[in-house]
Amino acid sequence: MAANGIYIKKRILAPNEDSVFAIYNFAVQLSALFLKLIALFHPKIKLFVDGRKEVMSYLKKNISEGDSIIWVHTASLGEFEQGLPIIEQLKKNYPEYRILVTFFSPSGYEVKKNTAAADMVTYLPMDTKKNAIKFLDLVNPKLVIFVKYEIWPNYLRALSQRNIPTLLISALFKENQIYFKSYGGFMRKALHNFTHIFVQDTKSIELLSKINIKNTAISGDTRFDRVIEILERDNNLAFMENFKNGAKTLVAGSTWPDDEEVLVPYINTGESSLKFVLAPHNIKPEHINKLKSSINKKTILYSELENKDLSAYEVLIIDTIGLLTKIYSYAEISYVGGGFATGLHNTLEPAVYGIPVIIGPSFKGFKEAEDLVNKGGVLVVKSPAEFFTLVNDLLKDEEHLKRTGDINSTYVSENKGASIQIMAYVRTLI
Fold first, then answer.
1. What parts of the chain have a pLDDT lower than 50?
2. pLDDT of residue 1
3. According to the model, what pLDDT value does residue 3 have?
4. pLDDT of the residue at 62
5. 235-414 homologous superfamily
6. Helices (H), strands (E): how many in the chain?
7. 123 near 103, Cβ under 8 Å?
8. What is the pLDDT of residues 172-208, one digit of tens each?
9. pLDDT value of residue 78
């Protein structure tokens, strides 16, 4: 009786997986309606909603009978950069296939909708059973690759039912994720639909093993391959040569207001011989103008460069997108934004150039940042005063400056190779 009682109690406490999945589907439908309402007042959400209205017609227009398609899905811009080494290898090795890239967020789609890396780029329709069936009927992919965190149960179930090989790459799993919770059964089932999962670390392997997922391999993070490729490209920028003019330069990328509150006091009162390049995350005119007005040194915007003697300026504000990766190559010191409140941006892009990287205090969950903080290549500041001291220490000691930067370039070099492992597996599938 006691045993039965315990059993009944457990049944009551543990939700049925099918019922949880039903709740999930209802929530997706509800969120779709909710987003349509928000879209009336929010420009970014409007892009999210409106962009999905034309997906099916776009696919019908761009896919011909007999096309062999590889579908790569990414959440946003960062995940696209992670997937890019694989996309490039697929295009090179399988020219008979067409590459479809889908995005979840507008920030990824709007920047990369015209990328030459893919044959087709569109949004991914919301994860409903109906959308998944319709989407796959149109695309009929021969291979599917999801990047990092993108786990969509309805799409994965439909892919599995059609026996379409589906990979998850550069994945990173943590104990607090839903897959490892008592109520996460339907999401665990979603993971079981992957043909193979390539993860970044041993911890992820251990966690997946505990939920009986064995079709895994440690490949590392494809972003290392991506940034290594950056070194092989032409990173010359004439305007940066003119602006830098032989002076030591600090490049601050993807900054938010919290970051700028740390940077600007130093710019205004710190080392006079140091030049600064600021590339804010928000490039709307009102923010750019406010930032410029807060700086008391001779400052110019990228949009104002024409016919100017850039060597005469001390601060350059980049009010456009697409240049930051190359600009980092001109830095002796870098700062990466998002480490105070919004979520840390890409530290590998400056790290690959062998320069110190400074960030704010919120970097937990960003594996490469955690690793490099421990190694001493990424340096953490919590206040303008700490930033002041740190930058001055780096500038005073050339050996310290070089040693710190070398830690970063060595780390990137030691972690390359994920793409080779993934592509070796792909060759067994197509």
1. 1-14
2. 36
3. 40
4. 97
5. Glycogen Phosphorylase B; (3.40.50.2000)
6. 20, 14
7. yes
8. 999 999 999 988 888 999 999 999 999 999 999 999 9
9. 86
Using one digit for the tens of pLDDT, what is the confidence trace for 245-263? 999 999 999 999 999 999 9
Dist CA 241 CA 238 (whole Å):
5
Q: Which position has the token pair 């962009």?
A: 51
Listed in sequence order, the residues at least 6 apart from 409 whose beta carbon sits closer than 8 Å to its beta carbon are: 351, 352, 353, 354
404 close to 333: Cβ distance less than 8 angstroms = no
Q: Domain-by-domain residue ranges, the chain?
A: 2-221+418-426, 235-414
Give the pLDDT score at 5.
42
Distance of CA 142 to the CA centre of its chain: 25
- How far is Cα 394 from Cα 372, in angstroms, rounded to an integer? 17
Q: Do the domains 235-414 and 2-221+418-426 match in fold? A: yes
| Chain Cα centroid distance, residue 302 | 25
Is residue 277 within 8 Å of residue 316, measured between CB atoms? yes
DSSP state letters, 132-158? HHHHHHHH--SEEEEETT---HHHHHH
Residue 157 and residue 193 in contact, taking contact as beta carbons nearer than 8 Å: yes
Distance of CA 415 to the CA centre of its chain: 17
How many whole angstroms separate alpha carbon 418 and alpha carbon 224?
8
CATH number for the domain formed by residue range(s) 2-221+418-426 = 3.40.50.11720
pLDDT of res. 16:
64
Buried b (16+ CB within 10 A) or exposed e, 59-92: beeebeeebebbbbbbbbbbbbbbbbbbbbbbbe
Q: Which residues pair with 171 in a beta bridge?
A: 199
pLDDT number for residue 17? 64
Q: Is 322 left (phi over 0), alpha (psi -120 to 50) or beta?
A: left
